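Figure-free illustration: sequence to structure, shown twice.
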Amino acid sequence: MSTNSFFLRRIHSLSGLIPIGLFLLEHLFTNSFALKGAKAFNEKVEFFQTLPYLTFIEILFIGLPIAFHAFYGLYIVYVAKNNILSYSYFRNWMFYLQRVTAIVTLVFLVWHVYVLRLAKALYDTEVSFEAISASLSNPGIFAFYIVGLIAAVFHFANGLWTFLITWGITVGPRAQQVTTYVTGLLFLVLNIIGINVLVAFTR
């Protein structure tokens, strides 16, 4: 592995946690205000939409890191050598699913950003509890959100496991086994939170 490749993979790994992973956690937390009803959720939306320097923050701290992580991630998917058909060990499957969920998450993210961010900027469409609720009343869109949620959360949780190894934090088999359980639990908890939010929009 060349020095440039080593450096880019480290940055790619780090960007998956900071800021993208943190943004995912914040996004799930903020959307959880839907559990408190339309008024509480809409107030949060208005708060974020009226932040000073919002466009600058979105581009610099969210858009650019996601773009780098996505495009370099596609390169990693392209050069990855999956061997699950020959060796169906647990970690080989996790390696394979990490690549699959990368693509699914990217497709979902592009659509999600267009509908809830770019469409508002271009056509001044409404972003509110009521608008999201109307969209999620479509079973196909609701199912798409479920798939996107599961893919994104898996990619984050399993990516966190890889991050800890990549950065030399979990170097032994015991530590890696423990983090497998921890990140698995994180995957379940975040999905429960996300699904609760989606259901809240459809009540």
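We now fold a second protein in the same way, so the two outputs can be compared directly.
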Amino acid sequence: MLLVPKVNLKYLLILSVWVFVVVGTVYVFNFIVIYDPSVYVGGDRGARTSLIRDYLTSGQYNQLVDVANEMELDVDPMRERDFNEIVRDIETRVPFLPLDFWARQTLIGRKKMKPQCGKFPSIFELEINNDLWQTQRTSNGTYQLFGAYMDNRKSNANDQWYIRILGMIDRVDTHLPMFCQIWYDQQEKPVIVPLEEYHYIWIKSWGNAFDGQYQPYLLSCPIPWDHRHLVPVSVSLVEQQCATATNNLKVLYNRPLDNEKKMFAVCVKGLDFLYQDLSVRLIEWIELLGILGADKIYFYDLQIHPNMSKVLQYYRKLNKVEVTKLTLPAGKPNIPGLQHLFLTQKLYQKRQNEIIPYNDCLYKNMYKYQYITLLDIDEVIMPKGDILNWRELMEMISAKADHGSPLPFPSYNFRNVYFLDSHYHLDRTSPESRDIPEFLHMLQHTNRAAVYSAPNEHVKCIHRANRILTLHNHFAMSCLQGSCAAYEIDVEDAQLQHYRYDCVTTVQRKCHNMTEFYVSDKNIYKFKDDLIKRSLKTLYQLGFLKIRNDSTVSP
């Protein structure tokens, strides 16, 4: 027999009333807090904000229903842009598309320019590859075109002017007859001229020089004499002169507004540092080049670490650097990670692709600077002795090398010497080095290989911008107005300081001598105080400094 305990109804009633009172009190309390006019209107909004935040963090989303109007959205308020705004936005992303010209000449989908020969191609008909390249297929190879530039530098005895087209072709030694369709503002039909010359920017013996692999080229379209008073707007390359092209490149003509040239531009190849954060070393390097006299540094961005991108954007706002997005052409990978693997495994193709940003940088800046130099972010052209900057260095070198010649050397090359990681040396007891922060790499490495690299081996040059036709990483490939011979700088005057973990792979057999035998070289110390101050300021501004066992120091 089941026994049921006797329930005292009196106590049960008291318990029920007590629960009702407690629940009701909590509800009324919450109601008063939420709807209290002193909090709601002009009262303690901090308390109300704190309460809403508590609801959000504790997941009590049902409590937010009654206060939804007290919150606001934090989303992109961008409105739909009109046609002209979209055109301007695209031009900032893809500088070689002649979008403004096309927009002025064309209604969407309706071409106004209808010549009998050489129809102006619609932007929608161009074969754009990997965002930045334009493709033209021919009977003997495929052309991947990157940029076009107006070149009115003195080139030869005839003083011919050209449009230079930079790109890659999957042929070696190609001489296929092609035509340049040159478009000018206020003209309804193009000026059509034969392509005059292919400039191959590679040496076959270096490797990967065979048909089917894309090779770097500079193509020259002569500008007719009766059009020298006009600046071309765009150019297309075609095999049949009256064909409608699948490419149309905006012609860049970057002259300084005041027609005054600055001294030094530095060009840096496509950065591939997706998995390495070299932001601190990048800051030290940029600051040192600024001290030495670089007016601006031009970077090309393949894939980089977010912190390095943050550094470059910081300096871009200060107008000290310019960053251009870069992709690989044709079927080459541009997927993050996969691109990095490709560049590490396909070294010859990597080096051939590097030719493009180097020459793009030259042609964008040939009117704006007297000198162009190509450097990696682990290299510095270091003046020696009492010379404090590149301007003083070039004045001294020019007086020594050119002797007032009307046709000075086109390039001046600097011998390479390694400052390897294994050469690390910092005497903390020395007054001149004990205040150097441990994270400033170049200031920490003041021992170098006792032996320089061989002459013309891994050199870097300072080039005269008005004399160079095509550039390779280490030297000029072809020049204007005569010989392309470079003047070798005496190592007593300056050197190329190369900060690496190890020697480059091509000189591994010689690396033992460079690793084992080293000497002290503290030339960089003449910039030490200024370099430390500038680097620390930037690290602080970017929030990269951190007190040990504490939070980041923020500005």
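Summary for the second example: The domain at 262-542 is CATH 3.90.550 (Spore Coat Polysaccharide Biosynthesis Protein SpsA; Chain A).
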